[in-house]
Structure formats: structure tokens, C-alpha cells
Amino acid sequence: MICNLFFITPTIAQQVFEDIVYEPVSIEYEGVHSPVIQDYADRAFVAIKNYHSKTAQELFDSILIIDKHNLLGLYGLAACKHADGDYEAAIEALTPLINVNPKNAGLFSLRARCFMVLDNMPKALEDFKIAVELTADEKDILSLSECLFYTGDYAASILEADKFSLKQNKKPDGFFVKGLAKSELKDFLGANEELKKAIDIDPENSTAYFQMARNFLLLKETNKAMKQINKALELDTKNAQALDLRAELKYLNHDYSNAIIDCNRVIQLDDETKYAYLTRGKSYNKMGLKKDACADFKKALELGNSDATEQLTKYCK
User: Which of these, 235, 192, 250, lies nearest to 216 by C-alpha position?
Assistant: First the structure.
């Protein structure tokens, strides 16, 4: 019985999408247009991208001294809040701007990104839909696809990711999102085809190898799964989920002692894992170490792994 069947979480996916979420968007700004204002704005957004939000804020303040109603300056201050990680303040600043500029896609886009990081996916989804309707910006299309994935609308997520990939077929992101969504729809072969496309473009994406390994495991192709999980770990030696999955594969291949070694490494990285304790317990049990096995089954159950109940009932009376 395969117990370690967890799908990739939004938190893990978010790490892959981090650069897209962080990058400030381009919008059509309203207010006074002048070379001085544009120069301040260009320098300010470079400062944000380089994580110098204090410098950026000073430049946006300079814009507002010239024109206190300038949307570029007001949007920039909200972008600074976003860059500083103060997403609620950014939303608070953006909402009145949106109310008076309801056709400005960039405002909706930035607010959506704030909602996204705050894990308010329904609100993010609503704003990204509006942003895409207004301009069909490629980054917003991809982010809309991500939000649809997070909210469980996998078929719609694939459709939006397709739109992105048609425009940006040299970027891995659309293929990666489609791979995740097809995995959730249990189209594991189709998912791996998409993930392979993402890997061909970006061979350093350890998460894509990890997800391919999971899909092969679910297809009961353990040798192919092992090959992919080893690639994931070559790229990220401290990936606890990848180690956890490899331990499961080693257990299934009756390599109990090495399964235990991987489980020990997982537990060192994350002692709250509910999967590694179960896999290690099963491995101990196969090796005749009942006391150690039962201790791990109890720990797995304490951490919320209900599959440990069967093991405790069967072997630890």
C-alpha cells in the first residue's frame, strides 16, 4: 500500500512562481506626463526590483510633489508596500485608486498579487480576471492560471496556461502549471508530458522532477519515479519532500535500510513530518524491529497521519 501520496501544495508552487508574483507590472499611468516624472519612475522601479524600497519610495514621493494626484506616484507607493511585504497596506492603498480608475489593469494586477501572497485566492482570482479582461497581459494570464489551480478549477487553469504558453513558448511556467493541474486531474501521463516541456526549457527546476516522480509512482512505474526523484535531489539536496518520496520508493523496492536513512534525513530537516515516521516505521517493521516500528507509528499518528492507525492495530497490540 502506498501511503505517501501527497500532491504539491500551493506553498511549494508559490516558490516556483515567486519571481512572477514579485515583479512590478507596467500600466498606463494617468496624471502629468514629463521626462522628470518618467525618470523618477524608471529609477524607482529599478530600486524596487533591487529590493531598495526606501530609495524607491523617496522617488515616488518626489513624483507626488510635482503632481499630488499622479497615478504613477500613488501606484508606486503601493508597489513599495508590496515589495516590503506589507501586503495589507498595499491593498489599502490600491483600493481607492481602483475605485477612481476602474479601467486600469495594472492596479487590479498588483492588488491581486497582494491577495495571492496573503492566500486570499478568491479575491486574487477576481482581480486577475478583471486585469486580463482589460489588457490580456501575459503575466496576468499566467497568474490567473495559478489562482485557478489553487482554487481547484484545474480545467480552467489549463486553459489559461495554454494561452500563456501560446504567447510564451520559450518560458517553462505555463507548461509547469499545466503539469500540476493535469496531475490533480489524475492525467499523470499528460502531466508528465507538460512537465517534460518545462524541464527542457529549465533543466534546473527540481520541483518539476519531483512532480514527475510522484506521477510515475502513481502510475506504479517505480524505476522511472526513482530516476526523476534522484534528479530532483541532485538539484536540491535538502528537499524534504523529495527525500520523503525517495524513502517511499526504497521501501516499495524492499530497500528498507536505505529507506530508513532517507527518513532520518527527512526528520532532521522537518521533525513534524507525518510521512517519514510512517515509512520508517514500516521499514523497521519489515526488519523485525517491532519496538522502533511501533514508536514511529505512534509518532506518525500524533502528527496526523491516519494511515498509521492500521499499522498500530495490526502490529502493535
Answer: 192
